[in-house]
Amino acid sequence: MSIHTDIKQKITDAAKRRDALELNVFRGLSAAFTNELVAKKKSTNDKLLDDDALAVIRRQVKQRKDSIEQFEKGGRKDLADTERAELAILEKILNA
Prior knowledge:
0% strand; Hypothetical Protein Yqey, Chain: A, domain1
């Protein structure tokens, strides 16, 4: 199963479990995948190749790390903690 298809399935699974954090991360990834398809001038009904999907996930990881740094500088530990939890989910996908 491709990463893109797997993420779509994980959205459904997280919704059934009512896991708001995972649902948020997976929906964000799905949106990022769609944006990548549009940027590549492909149909939004297409699926990203695994290499492209991994590149998108790596960008999401980098964004989370940057956000954590900025939130900590701004004294927003609560937001930094949320970003850390999302980062852990993204890293688990990368390491799978």
